Every structure is written in structure tokens, then in C-alpha cells.
Amino acid sequence: MELTRPTQLRNHLRGFLIYAAGDTAAALLLHQFSWLRLLGMALVGGILYSTEVPAYFRWLDRQQPAAEATTRVKRWQRAALSLLYFNPLWIARHYAFLGLFGGAAEPLSLALLPVAGRSFLLNAPVSLAANYYIQNRVTAQRRFMVSALFSGVMAVSYALAAVWL
To answer: What's in the keyword line of the UniProt record (predicted)?
Structure first.
């Protein structure tokens, strides 16, 4: 399923707003709010994430269409493939963006990898359940928005984990 221009525009706008809101909530909780971070994460969500996440979901639909995921095993496979996309390297990249826009002295460091790995493992059960729902119950047109909302919630979790872990 190719995205129409209005759908792409909606995804960009939703990514801009949802990712910015999730990260802003995390930054406020950690007393790390900055306008640069807000704008940077809004741009990452509205340009990068809103482009690559729907593209991955379209690839996933081509590999294993939701309509054909009639068995429990196939539905869990769709969820697992989605979870694998949001892997420790994806999380480390997200942390690097947080550091870059949050003014960290070394936003790109290999030290992000163990933290991202622990974050991934700690959040895997919740993420797998959420991805099961997103991939098997949400329509293709709304999948990015629901995933972005979940990611906004997880942004709070990842931001807190970066400090706690």
C-alpha cells in the first residue's frame, strides 16, 4: 500500500507533534527541557521517523500481510518483526539525537549501546505486546500514528532509563 500525499503530510505532522510531546514530557520530568531539544526532536519525528517507520510497516505488510496473519503464530511474528525494527541500535540512535539536541558534550558515544541494550531488554515485553496490538489490530492507515503515540510514551521511558541505567 503506497501512501497518498495527504497521508504522508498527516504522518509528518503527527510525527512532529507526537515525538516532540513525548520527549518534552520526558525532558520536563528530568529538568532537561530546552527549546533546541524540543525543535530537534520535533524535526526528527516529523521528518525522519515519519518517513522510515511507515516505510518499514509497508515492508512488513508486503512480507506478511495483516490479512493473512490468521494464526496466532503469524500475528506474533508480525509483532516480533516490528519489535526487531525498534532494536537497541534504533534506541541508541534516538539517544544520540537526545544528546545532540540536548547539548551533551559527547552525543555520539559507544557508551550509548549498553544503555540502549538494557532499555530494549527491559521494555521488550511491553513493546512486544504493544506491537502485537499495533500490527494486528490497527488499520494500516493509522498504524504510524498509534506507533508514534506508543513511542512518545516510550520516549519518557527511554529518557528516564538513560538516567537510571
So the answer is: Membrane, Transmembrane, Transmembrane helix
From the list 71, 11, 30, the residue with the least C-alpha distance to 158 is 30
Rounded to 5 degrees, what are φ and ψ at 142?
A: -105, -5
Query: Could you report the per-residue pLDDT of 8-60, keeping only the tens digit for each?
Result: 899 999 999 999 999 999 889 888 899 999 999 999 999 999 999 999 999 99
Residues 102 and 100: their CA atoms lie apart, in Å, by 6
Phi-psi region at 162: left, alpha or beta (left = phi > 0; alpha = psi -120 to 50): alpha
Choose among 142, 161, 117: nearest CA to 7: 142
Q: What is the pLDDT of residues 99-117, one digit of tens each?
A: 999 888 777 888 899 989 9
What secondary structure, in 3-state letters, does the chain show?
A: CCCCHHHHHHHHHHHHHHHHHHHHHHHHHCCCCCHHHHHHHHHHHHHHHHHHHHHHHHHHHHHCCHHHCCCHHHHHHHHHHHHHHCCHHHHHHHHHHHHHHHCCCCCCCCCHHHHHHHHHHHHHHHHHHHHHHHHHHCCCCCHHHHHHHHHHHHHHHHHHHHHHC
